[in-house]
């Protein structure tokens, strides 16, 4: 199985910020995730 590029704590922090109504595109850019990966969020 492929290992995750991000730690559990980094993923949780990004999800909490998304719940806080931050723009998803901004969160993706800040955390180094491609915009294509963020679309389903």
What does this structure look like?
The chain contains three helices and no strands. It is an all-alpha fold and 41 residues long. It is globular. Helices cover 59% and strands 0% of the residues.
Secondary structure: elements and pairs:
Blueprint: H1 8-19, H2 24-31, H3 35-38
**Proportion of helical residues:** 55-70%
Radius of gyration: 10 Å
Shape: globular
Mean pLDDT: 80
Topology as H/E string? Answer: HHH
| Count of β-strands | 0
Largest sheet: none
* Number of helices in the DSSP assignment: 3
**What structural class do you assign from the helix and strand content?**
mainly alpha
Strand content: under 5%
Low-confidence runs of at least 5 consecutive residues = none
Short description:
The chain is 59% helix and 0% strand.
What keyword list fits this structure?
single chain; 41 residues; mainly alpha; globular
């Amino acid at each position: 199985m492929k290992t995750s590029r991000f730690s559990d704590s980094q993923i949780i922090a990004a999800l909490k910020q998304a719940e806080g109504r931050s723009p998803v595109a901004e969160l993706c850019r800040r955390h180094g995730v491609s915009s294509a990966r963020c679309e389903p969020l």
